[in-house]
Write a structure and sequence with these properties.
The complex is a heterodimer. By secondary structure, chain A is of the alpha+beta class. In chain A, 21% of the residues lie in helices and 32% in strands. Chain A has two domains: 25-253, Rossmann fold (3-Layer(aba) Sandwich); 258-389, Beta Barrel (OB fold (Dihydrolipoamide Acetyltransferase, E2P)), CATH 2.40.50.140. In chain B, helix 3 (56-89) packs across helix 10 (217-227) and helix 6 crosses helix 8. Classes of the chains: A alpha+beta, B mainly alpha.
Chain lengths: 391, 263
């Protein structure tokens, strides 16, 4: 994928991993497939979506992530045509689609309830959109066969939806939505009804399918792991507003504000005042650590202003012996240990009633000096492991 | 685990059944009586059924009842479908509870009052009373029953089914016809059967709204009984029992099939 003119090589380290050079959103010339322009929607005076602006590019797997009631489903339903924006515009291929009813939009949706037609066989369900398009009989049969093979349901065409398992129904719903080749496929919490193991497998299958079809997918989910696994980019939503848009690694490693930091995984927040800023690293004075904290920052902050350092638990280092004095150093007592097999989470009480989380990958099967509850312990983190947030 | 009802429960059930069905059993029995006297058994015969076939007035009433029933049941089912759809699919709106309450009110409204109201309406509109006024009256009477039956089914249908059909390229009307209607078809059929049955055995509304030359079967029976009960009345009543029983039975079977299919 050509991303336009060569960009200057910067010394700034990359945030997280970059996936296969696919980044049309970084090209200012690129025309997005879908553009939300300051879209606002109210229900009975209650604001559901608040001036949301988003660009979704061709062949992108885009996730709308947020807690229930944040407006993500409403945003998606406006694209499908089931809700009308009160303000703002939605463009598809550069065209305002406000006047198009749902049945005239080249946008198909996979519903959370799957919405399979109970009176029709699997094959007739998959053929539904093709029949509405008025394709020939032969063509429909071929396409249905192709779709059923794609979702690994060969030979199931004659069954009724109630004769299928939950996972199979999910596949039928998917096949039905992609059969008429939509410009963009909308997935409303597509995996919420599946159990954990099946959900994880299906996530990878969805990615593979999206890649091999070259189709644009928009997924709505409240599950941050799901969004991080499948999506090229994530829009984190909060109370109708878009809090941040970015690659999974960007929203995780460089959250825009405390809300995003907290919603995308566990985080430790340390409050303080900016004492110095040089070369992308800010020093914060804080009563919590004797020599303060340092953290990575992109924008400049005024000396003396209030700020927070956000540090992910896995970026905390644990020390059984006191480390040399310096910034980013906390002493405490182990209050709780959560053993997860692959990871262990330590809850460390650094002051009465104030706990900090640290997570360690269990890279070895046995340890020489195991950490126990009530052990005295020290925590440190690298100078740029924390992110400075002001909101 | 004990099986079956206790002796006390058995007795109560038996008493209840006798109370409910003894009069009808007697009616059916005497319709096969050979003699002219209704209360004296004088041997088995089907002569009163044969006599019915030659009673032109009675046959005319049967035909009238059938026409009124078929047309009013169809009208009531169509209107009930629209009402049920409006009540379940338009979301919350002001006065929704009041409106659905008003749809159901005729279920408990005394029929005499409904009949009187209809009569006043037809008179003030200057409509000549006869076949059509009875049909309209029966439509009014059975509409709420049809609405209740259809609405019960419609409210359990996932609204996203229709959205999915529209999303896949169907106009709202086509989505309704190709997805919602087939799914609720058993309820629509049951509603129609119920409306037909109710129209068949209605006497009160028909008496208020009919005119000369538009005598339904229940009206005909009632007027005959006032002149004295004869076994022919028993015979036609038995036939009516059979038809109504069949109608209710079919409606029940359709609804049961609908339940087992949806579960």
């Amino acid at each position: 994928m050509d991303t336009g003119p060569d960009r200057a090589v910067t010394s700034k380290p990359h945030v997280g991993a970059v996936r296969s050079g696919f980044a049309p959103w970084e090209d200012p010339q690129a025309r997005p497939l879908v553009r939300f322009e300051a879209v606002t929607k109210r229900f009975d005076g209650e604001i559901a979506v608040d001036a949301a602006s988003l660009d979704i590019h061709e062949r992108e797997f885009f996730a709308l992530l947020g807690p229930s009631g944040c407006g993500k489903t409403t945003l998606m339903r406006m694209l499908a045509g089931f809700e009308t924006p009160d303000e703002g515009r939605i463009l598809l291929d550069g065209q305002d689609i406000a006047g198009l009813p749902p049945h005239r939009r080249p946008v198909h949706m996979m519903f959370q309830s799957y919405a399979l037609f109970p009176h029709l066989s699997v094959a007739r369900n998959v053929a539904f959109g093709l029949r509405a398009q008025g394709l020939g009989k032969r063509e429909i049969t071929d396409r249905v066969e192709e779709m059923l093979a794609l979702v690994k349901l060969e030979g199931m065409g004659g069954r009724k939806p109630h004769q299928l398992s939950g996972g199979q129904r999910q596949r039928v719903a998917l096949a039905r939505a992609i059969a008429p080749k939509p410009r963009i496929l909308l997935l409303d919490e597509p995996l919420a009804a599946l159990d954990r193991k099946l959900r994880e497998d299906t996530q990878f299958e969805l990615m593979g399918l999206q890649h091999s079809l070259g189709m644009t997918f928009l997924i709505v989910t409240h599950d941050r792991e799901e969004a991080m696994v499948v999506a090229d980019r994530i829009a984190v939503m909060r109370a109708g507003r878009i809090a941040q848009v970015g690659r999974p690694a960007e929203v995780y490693e460089a959250p825009a504000n405390r809300y995003v930091a907290d919603f995308i995984g566990d985080v430790n927040l340390f409050e303080g005042r900016v004492e110095a800023a040089e070369g992308g690293v800010v020093r914060l004075g804080s009563p919590e650590a004797p020599q303060g904290f340092t953290g990575f920052v992109e924008t400049s902050h005024a000396i003396g202003s209030q700020a927070w350092i956000a540090v992910r638990p896995e970026k905390m280092r644990l020390h059984l012996d006191p480390p040399p004095a310096g910034p980013n150093r906390l002493g405490g007592r182990v209050a709780d240990i959560g053993y997860l097999g692959d990871w262990t989470t330590y809850v460390v009480e650094v002051a009465p009633g104030r706990t900090v989380r640290a997570a360690c990958a269990n890279t070895a099967r046995t340890v020489e000096r195991p950490i126990a509850r009530d052990d005295a312990i020290w925590l440190t983190f690298a100078p740029d492991a924390g992110v400075v947030l002001v909101e | 685990m004990r099986r079956g009802p206790s002796a006390f429960n058995r007795l109560s059930i038996a008493l209840g059944m006798v109370f409910l069905y003894a009069p009808m059993a007697l009616l059916v029995l005497y319709s096969f009586n050979a003699g002219r006297l209704v209360t004296v058994w004088s041997g088995f015969s089907t002569r009163w059924y044969v006599a019915l076939l030659h009673d032109a007035q009675m046959l005319e009433a049967v035909w009238m009842t059938l026409r009124v029933g078929l047309i009013s049941a169809t009208l009531a089912t169509l209107l009930g479908l629209l009402a049920a759809f409006a009540l379940t699919r338009s979301g919350r709106f002001r006065g929704q509870t009041l409106l659905s309450g008003m749809v159901y009110a005729p279920l408990v409204l005394p029929e005499v009052i409904l009949g009187l109201a209809l009569l006043l309406l037809f008179v003030s509109l200057g409509l000549p009373r006869g076949f059509w006024t009875v049909t309209l009256g029966h439509t009014t009477l059975t509409l709420c029953y049809a609405t209740v039956v259809i609405q019960a089914r419609l409210s359990s249908v996932d609204p996203s089914l229709e959205e999915a059909a529209q999303d896949l390229g169907c106009t709202p009307l086509r989505a309704f016809l190709s997805v919602t209607l087939p799914i609720i078809a058993p309820a629509v059929a049951a509603a129609w059967m119920l409306a037909l049955t109710l129209s068949f055995d209605d006497l009160v509304i028909a008496s208020f709204t009919s005119g000369p030359g538009a005598t339904t079967l229940p009206m005909r029976l009632y007027s005959q009984i006032r002149l004295g009960v004869n076994p022919e009345v028993n015979a036609i009543s038995t036939l009516m029992l059979g038809v109504v029983g069949l109608g209710v039975g079919i409606a029940y079977l359709i609804q049961r099939r609908m339940r087992t299919r949806s579960s």
